[in-house]
Each structure stands twice: as structure tokens, then as C-alpha cells.
Automatic annotation (TrEMBL):
This is Glycoside hydrolase family 2 sugar-binding protein. Residues 167-266 form the Glycoside hydrolase family 2 immunoglobulin-like beta-sandwich domain. Keywords: Glycosidase, Hydrolase. It comes from the Bacteria. Belongs to the glycosyl hydrolase 2 family.
Amino acid sequence: MIRTSFNDGWQVRPKANPFAELSGHVVPFRPVTLPHDAMIEQQRAAPDGEVTMEGSAGAYFPGGVFEYRKTFAVPEEYRGRRIFVEFEGVYRDATVFINGDYAGQRPYGYSHFRVDADRFLRFGEDNEIRVEARAHRDSRWYTGAGIYRDTWLLVGEVVRIAPDGVRVTTPDVDDSRVVVEVATDVANDSIEVHTVDIVTEIRDGSGAVVASDHSRVTVLPGEPATARQRLYVPSPALWSPESPDLYDCHVALKGVDEEKVTFGIRTLQLDPERGLRLNGETVKLRGACVHHDNGILGAATYARAEERRVEILKNAGFNAIRISHQPMSKAMLAACDRIGMLVVDESFDMWTSGKSEFDYSLNFPEWWERDIEAMVAKDFNHPSVIMYSIGNEIPETGSPFGAAWGRRLAEKVRCLDPTRYVTNAVNGMLAVMSELGALQQQSLEQAAEDGAGINTLMADAGDAMNAVSSSELVTERTAESFAVLDVAGMNYAEARYALDRDLFPNRIILGTETFSTRIDGNWRLVKQYGHVIGDFTWTGWEYLGEVGIGRPQYVPEGGPQPAHNAPYPYLVAGCGDIDITGHRRPASYYREIVFGLRSEPYIAVRRPEQHGKTWAGSPWAWSDSISSWTWPGFEAEPVTVEVYSDADEVELIGNGNSFGRRPVGEEHRFRTEFEVVYVPGELVAVAYRDGVETGRTSLRWANGPVRLTAEADREVIRATGGDLAYVTLALTDADGTVHTAADRPVSVEVSGAGELIGFGSSDPSTQERLDATERRTYEGRAQVVLRPTAAGKIRLTATAPGCDPVDVVVTAE
């Protein structure tokens, strides 16, 4: 079918009451270009009274019902053809009307779906499509709202290749050749029998045809036919994260229709001794859990935004993404294929037991099969996808009926795609929540026998979760739910890794969700045990909502323990290795060292204003350190310097004076601390192994007048296809050192062939809007995102008090 972008020409407004409009109260529409997040434009507000889960979960953005409409012409020559409108994602409870008539719906906000449009269309005239979407107390994180992913118009003949109708597998791979099986679904909506010729070509990365086949298929009226072809590609280039080689499969119904899909050739194997093998080699998953939002863009899913996230995550040392907790976008899947990133794609955050008042559990019993089908159809040809997750922290997994649901979902996935593995991210504590009180009492009694008090037992929530997850109760209650899977996904349950090697010798484990603060110990376990295939940190990338769960906190004098969630105006969760602008935090460099991917030491400095206070952060919280040696106003004050390294020891040197050497490396959790007095200048860390220097790094204070700088991620971008330009604004000294303590408001103006679609910073707590033209920097930085509106030059001018204006020009081609 001919696939054309359907993103232009839309309008949006808050859903209006038609009876109110009859009395003259008309809510105006305004133009938008898709993808579009209607929620990110809403005014955040502080809730009345205490912090509530419903407010903090969605970052204090209000919900709402939003109405989109578009007028589009349908040529007379389209009469008699099949026409569909495809939506890659509408959040949530999407209802579609064409020319005023109901055309389709989709309750789940993360599934792609199509509406059969031709029956409602007026050919040779203008037509109107209208989409309603709503978001209201239906999630545990920021979801966004509206038509937040791409839309497409599909036009084809009555005999055609069905959408998602080309599926490529490689069942037999060796060094000399690979068998490529191509299954093509051919639809026939006519009243006649049709026999068509199918020509299939496999092309390598250079475009050269490396295999081809010609066959014939007869399609009966109203009865789709599947044509299967076996092709043989010599000397295949195998896909892997290190070498993401791709092939194109071109399928043509001669004279009728054609389709192209991209695929990769690779093998997967799994066993408890050698773990997960890719192309015959054991691979350990260095995983990042990632939410679907794009930071300052909200939930809007642009191809470049997804690609940029994958690039940054891979450069930070990750080789796998678990999308949490919903199916990954098509754009991110394509980026993972090109860049080389393994994917665990996840279906649901709930089944029949709701976690929010109006969540998908209300629709799950009726819709789950169609949503599983949509996820698998989307993923099938992507070599990056190695595993499907059928759920996340599903409370039902601790009951027989929940295990039956798990088997139902797992078998549905296997029926649709037997080439990949199935997991489920199980939280043992949630699985036995109804009996948690009795279990906790047993733990307290055991702790008393061991001489530990309740404060010792419950001092760390991670320890408590592990204690419950490794209990006999969880072992028994989750046995069947784990047995229906290929890989036992475990959230915050590393205490089971060694235990299950003996209890369940055939069980293969994946740490589907873990605390970033425990990566050193967790990674040691991953390397030690063959049956443990990887670790996925919560989270690799910062996200909107669940505000403040990973924020740095301290015990106030005489006050209560801080709350789990943060009050308004907190915006983000606070637990990402990489902040919402794509800037790597200290935890990211620490993880890279633990993975064995970085030899240079890394310096992070705790904020001196908190020095000496009692830490009270959650297990998701890293220290409040940043990579800066610029602390005006704290001269001669004590400060804690963290140094991360895999060497034997590190030396810290300030302005040429040594503060001594301290042991570091794996036996010391790859980190050490120096208590020093802050003196502006230069701080240097030198790593030694066996007394020989192996690397060094330094921090310099920002000295002298503040300059405003602007740098685009690329000078030339595409004018179409979801491309964007990311511009980093920074306050620096003359040498380029960032003035992390000189924040000020920055104003921007955009002219030419582009528009401003996002302006923000990594400030975790702010009342500033993300769609304004003025924004205060945070730790010396801010970020602008530009979208091209046509081919040509896009000019950004930025100004800040006390700084000379700066210009950046990006060319859209």
C-alpha cells in the first residue's frame, strides 16, 4: 500500500460540550502538526493538601479530554481502493470519527492501530477526521495525551500486501549462507479470484541484490493467502550491537503492490550455563529501563528524539533497553536496529488488577489480545528485539489465576512469534502483597533472633524488598508464573540469583529492574552466574512523573523522614543516569567504570551546602554530586569529593598539592571519597594499578566573565521525516568551563524554516513552562529543540543578562 504521512493540517482543542456550544460557548481549535502532546501544554498546579500519588505520578499536569480534527481531500480516482488511517499511538481511549460517523477506537494508549476509512469517505470532496483522546488518573507516570506519535494514510488496491504483512525470519544461519524465509500476507477484498506473481529481493547495506525469488499465489475472495518463500543469502553479515548490519527485503506483487521491510540476520540461544548467546557468543545485557517520554518535548515521539536517546545511551555503555512499561515506538525500534541496541519490549503495566483509578485494567480482559498482536506485528522484523515482556510488577503473579493469565499471554506471544523469548518483570513483594503483614512479622521475629532490630532491618527499602522476594512464600507463590516464561524477569530481587541456581536449576534470570546505587554488586552477580543474563537499571534516562523518587534527601533536624514523592513543583523522578536533556550524570560514568568500559577515573563533587547533613535518599537516589569545581561562596569550606575508578588506588591533587592516595576498585565498590577544603583552581584525580598510572582526569573552576554559548548537535538536518535540531545553551568562562553556579534566564528567538518546540533544562523542580521562549539555566545549561517547517535555514538567537547574544544556524534539507 502507498504510505503517506498524515501529520500535517491538524487542529486541536479541549473537548467541548456540544450542548454548551449550542448556547454560544464555542471552544476554538488551533493548528498543530503531529506528533503532538496535548498534556505538556497544560498548566501544572499544586494540589490541595498533602502530596498525592495521582498528582505526583503525572508530574502535577492535569488530565483532560482533547479533540483533534483534520480536513483532507480524497481524489475521485481513489474510489474502489482500500484506504486506512494508521495511528502509531494515541493516549488514551482514542475514538475516531470520519465525516461525523464512528470509525474505530483503541483504549490502550501505546498500541498502533488502523481504522478502515474508505466506507466513510466522500470521493472527489473534502473529508473530516476527528479523534478524541483522554487522560485522567490512569497511570503511575507522565503519559502525555493526544495523538503523540505519527499518523499515516494508507491507500491500496483491493488485492494488496496487507499492512504488517511481510514477515522475515532466518531459521538457519552459518558462516557460508543463511536461509531467509519471507512470509507475505496477500489480501483480496474483491469478489473475484486473483492469481498474482510475487517477486522478492534481498538487498544488502550497499543496495546490491544478494538473493531473489519468484513465485505465484492465488487469493480467493475475502480469504487472505500467505505466500512463503525461502531465499539463500551467501556469506551473511550478522547483526549485533557491535556490528548492526541490516538487509532490505523488497516484495512486489507484479503490477499491483510492493512493500519493503528492513531486517537483520542473527541467532539467539539460551541456556542456564552459557546464558544468552547472540550469534554463538554469550552476551550480558547492560540494560537501561527507559520510559516513553522525550523530556522537554513531553510524550511527543519524533524520530530524531528517539534516535538521539539511543545514541546517547549506547555511548554511555548500555547495550540493551527495556522500554518501561509499554510497547516501544516504531521510531525507537528503527534506531535500535541502525545503532545496535538490544531491546526487551514490554506490553503492559497492569492486567486485571488496577494500579490507578481509571487505568487499562478496565479494558484489559477485552483488548489484551489485540494489543499483544499489535506489539508483535510492530516488532517482528526488528533484529534489535530479542525478548517480549508480558507485564511489569503484576500483582496477580502471586496467585494461580494470575499464573493462568501469564500462560495465556506468553502462549499468545509464542503463537505470533516463536523466534524470541518471553519474560515478565515480577516484583516478588507485590506478588504477595496481601500477605505482606504476616511475612513482615516473620522477618522481624527472625531479625530479633539474629540480634537485629527493626530499624536495622528496614533501614534500606532495597534490603526489605530483597528479604521479601527471597522468602519461601514468594518462592512458592511465583513458581508457576515464572515457569510459563523463557526468562524469569525479577525486579529488585538480586537475593534470588544464587538461591534459584539451586532451587530452580533450569531457571534463567534477568534483572529487569534494579537500583542504580547497587550496580557494582549486581554486575558482579551477572558476571558470576551463567543463568543471570543481565541487569536493567531504574532508570537509564530521566523521565517525567513519579516525581522525586530518586531525589537527594536529608533528614531535617527534629523533623519527619522525607516523603517518597516530592511536592509541587517537582517535575521528574530524579533517578536517571542521564537527565532529561541528554546530559550524563555522575552515576552514568560510575556505571561505565563498573561495566569495565572506562579506564579514566571520574570526579564528582557533593554540594557543599549539604555537607555534614544526614543522608535520607531512597535506594533510587544517587548522591547530590555533580562534575564541577565551581562553588563560589564556599571558599575554605569543607567539601566531599567522590572519585570513581577500577584501578587499585587514586590520588587526588588540588592546585598541585596532593591530598593523598586512597584504595578504590572493585573491592571498594569502585569509589572512594576525599574530605577537602574548597579552594578554587584545578582538581586532578590520578589512577594507579600496581603503582603505575593508568589514567587521570581533572576539573577546573569557571573563572572570569560569564559567556553564553550555543551549539547545535548537527549543522544539517532533514526537512522531513521527524528530524530535529538540539541546541545546547551553556554559560561558560573563556576556556569553555561551564559556570555551574551562575544560572540566569535565557531568551530565545527562532526565525527561518523552523520553529521552537521545546525549551527547558534539567532542573528537577521548576514552575517554568516547557513551551515558553524564556527559561532559566540549571547548573549552567539549558536546551532548545527546533523542528524544521520547510527546507532552508533555521536561525536561533539566544540572549542572557550580562552576556553577548549568540546565534546558531541549522540547515534543513
